Amino acid sequence: MRRTLFTILGLLIMTTACQTEEEETSLTPEEINFELEEDAGFRIDTVSMPSGDVLQGDDTSAEITGQWLDEPQTVWIGESLRDPLGNWIDFPAYEQRPEDGEDNAFTIQTPPAFDESPAVSGPYTHVLSIWDQDPSQDGAVRLMRAETNEALTYFNQRERFSDWPDTAGWYAADHAIGQTSFEPGQVSFDDGQNRLLIHKDSGIGGEIRTEERFSYGSYQIAMRVPDHPGTLTGFFFYETPDFHHEIDIEVMNNPSGEVWFTTYQGGQERHASKETYDFDPTDGVHIYRIDYFPDYVAFFINGEEHARFEDGYSHEPMQLMVNYWEPTWLRGARDMDQGTLYIESIMY
């Protein structure tokens, strides 16, 4: 991640006592906290900054437009970033001088926040400050402080599986569980739909796994589950032995919206949230996410958090998996033998 990160949000929000209701700053996104000195000497008209899901290589620049209320002046910009593990990264402040011939209107376009080096995936908080001089000097005055709290979720990689079965880092499992035997032949890629397909026939299902064991970060899947009562789709972390290292999202394969969020540690189920939500997982692609960090594990559907546990989960590296199967303990009208799970992408 580049030191130029300092400007990503900086240009978030600056409103002054001189701005009227008609001159309110237009903010994108709207979720920003800010403080501004009354005599800062400028106003801000528009601010646009990256938010939502951001993938390595995406354009993460920000733009700010505004007006000097007095003569253009030299200011210093400093930035701090808090990563998903709670670590603060303070970037060196830099001097921003007015350009020759600059009038009262100004536009600032920031460089991208992230470069090609890996970073911890997950929600980030940014804080940007504008100072009247080098903040390392005695007497420096902070003219503005702007903060977005976890408005941006960063991912290093999006896997679309277009080269399946040769997708690096992933493979189809070959084993049995419950009433289902997982076979590699049940996993394929559909070029026409540009999606990975996991099929289930009578007694036979499919499962994909990462070769690598993963630790803390955010992990997200975009998928449409089949309408196949009596079966489920799992998106989860797992490591042997059973019931010691597992963090699950389990979607019931029917229109009910029933989803389970569970954790296992020390040989037993430690947490289980089994609720019905207001959506149909069989009707189009939906987004499911696990945030897995030292202080908590949280579960999301379509960007909304639905469960969070602060203990009772494993901290050991685990494989990330997706499967479509028929448990012995899941009741349902098994009036069909076949179905297909559609995976659009997995981000991590």
TrEMBL record:
| EC number assigned by the record | 3.2.1.73
Q: Gene3D superfamilies per the record?
A: 2.60.120.200
UniProt key word Iron: no
Which sites are catalytic?
246 (nucleophile), 250 (proton donor)
Enzyme class, UniProt record, top EC level: hydrolase
Record's keyword terms, sorted? Glycosidase, Hydrolase
UniProt xrefs under Pfam families:
Glyco_hydro_16
Domain GH16 as annotated: residue spans: 129-348
Output the InterPro entries linked to this UniProt entry: Beta-glucanase-like, Beta-glucanase/XTH, Beta_glucanase, ConA-like_dom_sf
What the entry lists under PROSITE patterns is as follows:
GH16_2 (PS51762), PROKAR_LIPOPROTEIN (PS51257)
Catalytic reaction(s) noted: Hydrolysis of (1->4)-beta-D-glucosidic linkages in beta-D-glucans containing (1->3)- and (1->4)-bonds
Please list the GO terms describing molecular function: licheninase activity
Q: A GO biological process this protein is involved in? A: carbohydrate metabolic process
Q: Which PANTHER family match?
A: XYLOGLUCAN ENDOTRANSGLUCOSYLASE/HYDROLASE PROTEIN 8-RELATED
What protein does this entry describe? Beta-glucanase
Native organism is Bacillus selenitireducens (strain ATCC 700615 / DSM 15326 / MLS10)
Upper taxonomic lineage: Bacteria, Bacillati, Bacillota, Bacilli, Bacillales
